[in-house]
Design goal:
Structural class: alpha/beta
CATH topology of the largest domain: TIM Barrel
Shape: globular
CATH architecture of the largest domain: Alpha-Beta Barrel
Oligomer: single chain
Helix content: 10-25%
Strand order of the largest sheet: 10-9-8-6-4-3-2-13
Distance between the termini: 42 Å
CATH superfamily of the largest domain: Glycosidases
Number of domains: 3
Strand content: 25-35%
Number of helices: 12
Length: 615
């Protein structure tokens, strides 16, 4: 923004979650006992989803205030953000300023480096340079330069807000970014990525901040100009784009410009924001878009939600309530959109409203840490912490670059579980939105034993508190989740090769089983017969009596094993089954429920005809 976002399929004795609810297994149904169903553990998928690149936040705006703070406070902030004792952020977004011409909010009028005669003044942007250097010194993995507005001399209105980049200056703009990138590299700060336009759907004509509109037909021109300039200079920096405000815009607009000849080669990640508060269908559409382009997606900005919703609301809430909403957004970005990165908006902010320590409707939930907006007159340089800071750390401190996400299904109502595998260790992050303590059992499929190493929790009364490690028995981890809490578990499991798990796939809407043969896929009344059983393996395949479930355009068939993406599937916690070839959902055509109804592939919409349970 820029304003003030047993495995997935259970064994026959377990269950799969749809929107968090546990569904009973056949054994439980036969016995007629809800207790058996409730005892079924949540399941960690044997199949890997996406690899996580980084987790971090932005250095926009607040650095322009903190350049006036005591150097000791600046150093403390850097430690809080970048060190292992702090958030250990693995990405940091540096704001390329556009000069701030006509911007009415001083802190948002970021300096550029161009002088009137076209030379460079590298002493500018002191605050931005200070914290970018700190990020580099702490070894932050991904340093990302992002632009709200090009230098004002190249915009159509001569301002840093309200205009567009003039087409005749696209080359000048690309050279400017490359010059700044080269300068930082000479200072020992290597930028890994550049985002050349931010929220291009908005011109920010109110001028409360920097911003420029970039129409769809200009985005590819800018990307090619910058990419070619970087390549000519042998820069390692690459491009991310297009940072649309909403996932719906990203889905509709990105394919238009990235498909233009010579453009896609310069793009390393597809960046989107989530200010439309996307539902599960819209998040899955992000995955479909990324699969169509052949690139990974990143969630690169969100903030300013509250009042019990992950949608846009004005509020300042430093409590666990808003922290749990942040953790839900991260969970959904990783588990439903299958994004490879999560980047929060501003790491620090001053807009806490009437009280930095209590909820109020005057401030904004845009920062992780806050400072006094009147610091310049009252000398107050106190830092005020929100629970959002600790919520982000429940991920960023533990889910390190290179971690591989594995979907988790079958969690209790009100509980969200995500798991990540790296170097023989599992990191499991659990959100308990319930107002009461909630038991959780989580099963890890594999031959090697699981050992609990660490448990860290943030709640209304705790901040990254070391708490009791969970019990482990026969690959199942058991714990009681504190009410309204976020807990991260670290476990060992060396060489955890998972075996396939079997069971029927039952449509939530129809209550009928998925069947498939060479002629296609369809619903049939569940009989418990072995011919309705599917085996889900660590390679992502679903094998039934007629062969491997295979995507064929918009259709489905059972076929011999090929090993390609058309036979690999992601089974999401919300019940969606996604094709890794297309990103589309397993869908009952026309929302039909009768025996013989066709099952096809269709763009995910979040409907119950696209939700499946394992029985």
């Amino acid at each position: 923004m820029i304003r003030p976002r047993r495995p997935v399929l259970a064994t026959a004795a377990a269950a799969l979650a749809v929107t968090g609810a546990l569904l009973s297994s056949p054994a439980a149904n036969a016995a007629g006992t809800a207790a058996d169903a409730a005892a079924a553990p949540a399941e960690v998928s044997p199949h890997a989803a996406q690899t996580i690149d980084d987790i971090g936040a932005s250095g926009a705006w607040w650095v322009n205030d903190l350049q006036h703070f005591d150097p000791k406070v600046q150093a403390r902030v850097a430690k809080l953000l970048f060190s292992k004792q702090g958030l250990a952020m693995s990405s940091y977004r540096y704001n390329f300023g556009g000069g701030g011409v006509a911007v009415t909010t001083p802190a948002r009028a970021a300096e550029d480096f161009l002088t009137a005669d076209g030379s460079y003044d590298w002493s500018r942007d002191k605050g931005g340079r200070t914290f970018l250097r700190y990020a580099a010194e702490y070894g932050v993995k991904d340093l990302i330069g992002f632009v709200n507005s090009a230098p004002a001399r190249w915009t159509t209105d001569g301002q840093s807000c309200g205009g567009r980049l003039k087409p005749e200056n696209e080359g000048d703009y690309a050279k400017y970014i490359a010059d700044v990138t080269d300068h930082f590299a000479r200072q020992g700060v290597e930028l890994d990525y550049i985002s050349p336009f931010n929220e291009p759907d908005n011109d920010f004509g109110s001028c409360g901040q920097e911003g420029m509109q970039v129409t769809v037909d200009q985005r590819d021109d800018i990307v090619r100009a910058l990419g070619a300039e970087q390549r000519a200079r042998h820069q390692k920096t690459s491009v991310i784009a297009d940072e649309s405000s909403q996932t719906t815009q990203f889905v509709s607009e990105l394919p238009q410009w990235i498909s233009q000849p010579g453009t896609a080669q310069y793009v390393s990640a597809l960046a989107h924001h989530t200010y439309n508060n996307p539902n599960d269908g819209q998040l899955a559409n992000v995955y479909e878009t990324s699969r169509a382009v052949g690139q990974k997606s990143w969630a690169t900005e969100i903030c300013c939600f509250g009042k019990g919703s992950t949608g846009w609301n004005q509020e300042y809430d430093p409590t666990i309530d808003n922290a749990l909403l942040l953790s839900r957004i991260i969970y959904k970005d990783f588990a439903s959109a299958h994004d490879s990165a999560f980047q929060w908006w501003v790491a620090l902010a001053s807009g806490y409203g009437s009280d930095p320590n209590a909820k109020n409707d005057v401030g904004w939930n845009d920062g992780l840490i806050y400072y006094d907006p009147d610091y310049a007159t009252n000398g107050n340089q106190t830092l005020y912490f929100t629970k959002r800071y600790y919520a982000l750390g429940q991920y960023s401190k533990f889910v390190r670059p290179g971690s591989v996400a594995h979907n988790v299904t079958g969690a209790p109502d009100g509980v969200e579980v995500s798991s990540y595998d790296r170097d023989g260790k599992w990191v499991v992050v659990v959100n308990n939105h319930n107002a009461t303590d909630t038991p959780l059992s989580l099963h890890f499929n594999g031959r090697a034993p699981v050992r609990a190493r660490q448990a860290v929790r943030t709640s209304a009364t705790e901040d990254w508190a070391d708490v009791a490690k969970p019990a482990v028995s026969a690959g199942t981890v058991s714990a009681t989740l504190a009410a309204r809490s976020i807990t991260t578990y670290v476990l060992d499991q060396k060489g955890h090769g998972g075996s396939a798990v079997t069971g029927a796939l039952v449509g939530k809407q129809s209550g009928k089983c998925l069947t498939a043969d060479a002629s296609g896929a369809a619903l049939a009344s569940c009989t418990g017969a072995g011919g309705q059983s599917w085996s889900y393996a660590a390679d992502g395949t679903l094998k039934g009596a007629g062969g491997y479930l295979t995507a064929t355009g918009s259709g489905l068939t059972a076929a011999d094993r090929t090993g390609d993406a058309s036979q690999r599937w992601l089974l999401n916690a919300n019940g969606q089954i996604l094709s890794e070839a297309s990103g589309k959902c397993l869908d009952v055509s026309g929302q039909a429920t009768a025996d013989g109804s066709k099952v096809i592939l269709y763009s995910c919409n979040g409907g119950t005809n696209e939700a499946w349970t394992r029985q």
